[in-house]
């Protein structure tokens, strides 16, 4: 079995509950509304990687590398925010994404991750609206 290769490694933390169906997000990406995936499985990227919001709306595929993690599952999350206290490679997750990724109460764990396409996790058309 080959070992997975990650473009980024750092700490994973948890910072926000999922958003309500019609909830607007007060995140740095400034989306007035989020897709079902992005309302539930979202993350904030480090200030160093923020790059003037270049990664807003991109998906990340994350694995918990910490031996304390229960799930062993990869999780896909949408970047919707900037984490000012995160170091390069760190991600800060919504509670549902954190729970699926780690199975732990909020803490700090080692993660590995890559950017990935959001296409397999979305359906329907893109709708542009103005708030």
Description:
It is globular, with a radius of gyration of 14 Å. The N and C termini lie far apart (49 Å). It contains 3 helices and 6 strands; from the N terminus they run βαβαβββαβ. It has a single domain (8-119), classed as RlpA-like domain (Barwin-like endoglucanases), CATH 2.40.40.10. The protein has 131 residues and is of the alpha/beta class. The longest helix is centred in the C-terminal third of the chain and has 8 residues, at 95-102. A 6-stranded mixed barrel has the order 1-5-2-4-3-6.
Short description:
By secondary structure, this protein is α/β, with parallel strands linked by helices. Helices cover 13% and strands 32% of the residues.
């Amino acid at each position: 079995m080959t070992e997975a290769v990650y473009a980024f490694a750092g700490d994973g933390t948890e910072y926000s509950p999922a958003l309500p169906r019609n909830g607007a997000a007060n995140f740095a990406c400034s989306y007035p509304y989020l897709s079902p995936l992005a309302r539930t499985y979202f993350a904030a990227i480090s200030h160093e990687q923020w790059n003037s919001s270049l990664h807003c709306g991109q998906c990340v595929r994350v694995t918990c590398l910490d031996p304390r993690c229960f799930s062993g599952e990869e999780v896909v999350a949408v970047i919707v925010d900037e984490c000012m206290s995160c170091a390069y490679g760190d991600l800060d997750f919504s509670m549902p994404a954190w729970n699926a990724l780690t199975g732990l109460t909020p803490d700090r764990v080692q993660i590995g991750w890559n950017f990935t396409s959001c296409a397999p996790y979305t359906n329907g058309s893109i709708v542009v609206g103005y708030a």
